[in-house]
Amino acid sequence: MQVISSIAELRARLNEERAIAFVPTMGNLHEGHLDLMRLARENSSREHGSCVVASIFVNPLQFGPNEDFDQYPRTLAADCAKLQGLVDVVFAPSASEMYPVQQTVFVEPPPVASELCGAARPGHFRGMATVVLKLLNIVQPQLALFGKKDYQQLHIIRTLAAQLNLPVSIVGGETVRAHDGLALSSRNQYLTEVERSEAVFLYQTLQAMRRSVLQGARDFELLQQQALKALSDRGWLVDYVAVRDQSDLQPASGGQRDLVILAAARLGKTRLLDNVEVCIGE
Ligand code: PAF
């Protein structure tokens, strides 16, 4: 496994590769990331050859002024140890390598980027989509993999790749959960012990909504309000709980069959995200 920090060196290394599978990350890797690396290897050896590239870059462009960019855990040595044997190349550029001049060209994400997480984090998806496009241009993979835990992010990246005709297939990896069901996230380590045991309530709430929908509930507005109240009553600060159509993330009206229930809520200082897919008639 090679660790490369310069774009020129990375391009020289990848020049000979017939096909590449790519997993962009911000590092501080957990099982969810490692699962994506394994999926990249499986997919790439089946269809595309076998070079798997992971990137580790905490992208300043996707953090707001009052967000956790400075505190975001940077653990490159430990991350590389975890990636040993799973990937061929780790691309870990500095901020000045990625942004040698002030970035003045941005990806304008689709309107859904200002809803859900975008409503609480203005500019986040613009910064995310811009760095993802830069990384895809740098690595030029045939396959790029992203976790379904960031469902809205995955949707925006799929839209970006489709509408800008990028020659890459976007693959979504299933959310990996802790023993109690909490979705793995680098931000879980901000939780205190008490918050950590409460944290799984977000997933339990989404699962309860999923069961209601499968049992025939179609008043999604009511389900959302009930979930919001259940979370607020236990001290969560809820950004949103939303039942949406999987294909376009528009509000579900009752006619669609493939839905996703998404939520973001704060527990103390930590903002947690989760979602569950619901396929009616499955
Ligand atoms: O999901 C992430 O870790 C980041 O948003 C990504 C896709 C690596 C872009 O910085």
How would you write the strand order of the largest sheet? Answer: 1-4-3-2-5-6
What is the residue-mean pLDDT, rounded to a whole number? 96
End-to-end distance: 42 Å
Largest sheet: 6 strands, parallel
Series of secondary-structure elements, N-terminal to C-terminal: EHEHEHEHHHEHEHHHEEE
Question: CATH architecture of the largest domain, please?
Answer: 3-Layer(aba) Sandwich
Q: Count the helices. How many?
A: 10
> DSSP strand (E) fraction?
15-25%
- Outline the low-pLDDT stretches: none
Named once each, the bound ligands are: pantoate
**CATH uppermost class of the largest domain:** Alpha Beta
Rg, Cα atoms, Å: 19 Å
Give the tally of structural domains.
2
| Global shape | globular
Q: Would you give the CATH topology of the largest domain?
A: Rossmann fold
Count every beta strand, where a strand is a DSSP E run of 2 or more residues. Answer: 9
Protein described:
The protein has 2 domains: about 1-175, HUPs (Rossmann fold, 3-Layer(aba) Sandwich); about 185-275, 2-Layer Sandwich (Pantoate--beta-alanine Ligase, Chain: A,domain 2). The strands form 2 sheets. Strands 1-4-3-2-5-6 form a 6-stranded parallel beta sheet, sandwiched between helices. The protein has a 3-stranded antiparallel beta sheet with strand order 7-8-9. The protein starts with a strand and ends with a strand. It has 10 helices and 9 strands. Helix 6 (about 125-140) packs across helix 7 (about 150-165) and helix 9 (about 200-215) runs antiparallel to helix 10. Strand 3 (about 50-55), helix 3 (about 75-85) and strand 4 form a beta-alpha-beta unit. It has about 280 residues and is an alpha/beta fold. It has helices spanning about 5-15, 30-50, 75-85, 95-100, 115-120, 125-140, 150-165, 195-200, 200-215, 220-235, and strands spanning about 1-5, 20-25, 50-55, 90, 145, 170-175, 235-245, 260-265, 270-280. About 35% of the residues are buried. Pantoate binds near residues 59 and 150.
